[in-house]
Specification:
single chain; about 170 residues; alpha+beta; 5 strands
């Protein structure tokens, strides 16, 4: 399992980087994109690309214009755009106001989060912490993510990194 999981993660990592380059989000939107999640940590088991922007002056028309540009660069099957400001934000914290887009290509899910408040969001630090995990921890995370696709990855990361999950067997 471990060699297969590693090979899959590396292959997905290369695909993710290729897609990220193809999207060229830095020219589609007026804010710099920041790669986060498993594409940054290298712990990919699914074709799911997460990108965030610190975009305090974002407006729906600006983001929709950028999404129109993105649609000329990749074949989009669906695009779901959400205004998550005020009482529609995902948590009670005012700093979690955002615009959020989920795009689907024939093979990839792309999450774009446009944060409206520039604060320290833990996404990059969390991914870098995962990138620095030991080889055994990384293999165990990949194994658990592959076996438990219905679980929240953050729970798996915490369980492995904080010592709550024993190492994988050598099979």
């Amino acid at each position: 399992m471990s060699l297969v999981a590693q090979a899959l993660a590396l292959a997905l990592q290369a695909e993710a980087q290729s897609l990220y380059t193809q999207l060229d989000l830095a020219t589609a939107f007026p804010w710099p994109p920041v790669l986060i999640g498993s594409a940054l940590s290298g712990l990919m088991v699914d074709r799911d690309l997460d990108i965030m922007f610190d975009a305090p002056n974002a407006t729906a028309p600006t983001i929709l214009k950028g999404l129109t540009t993105v649609a000329t660069r990749v074949h989009l099957l669906t695009a779901d755009f959400r205004d998550e400001r005020s009482d529609r934000r995902p948590t009670p914290a005012l700093t979690d106001e955002r615009f959020y887009a989920v795009l689907h290509t024939p093979t990839w899910k792309i999450d774009l989060t446009f944060w409206l408040h520039v604060v320290d969001h833990p996404h990059v630090a969390d991914a870098l912490r995962l990138k620095a995990a030991t080889k055994e921890q990384r293999l165990r995370i990949l194994q658990l993510k592959a076996e438990h696709r219905d679980r929240n990855s953050s729970q798996i990361y915490a369980a492995v990194l904080d010592g709550g999950v024993p190492p994988a067997s050598s099979t």
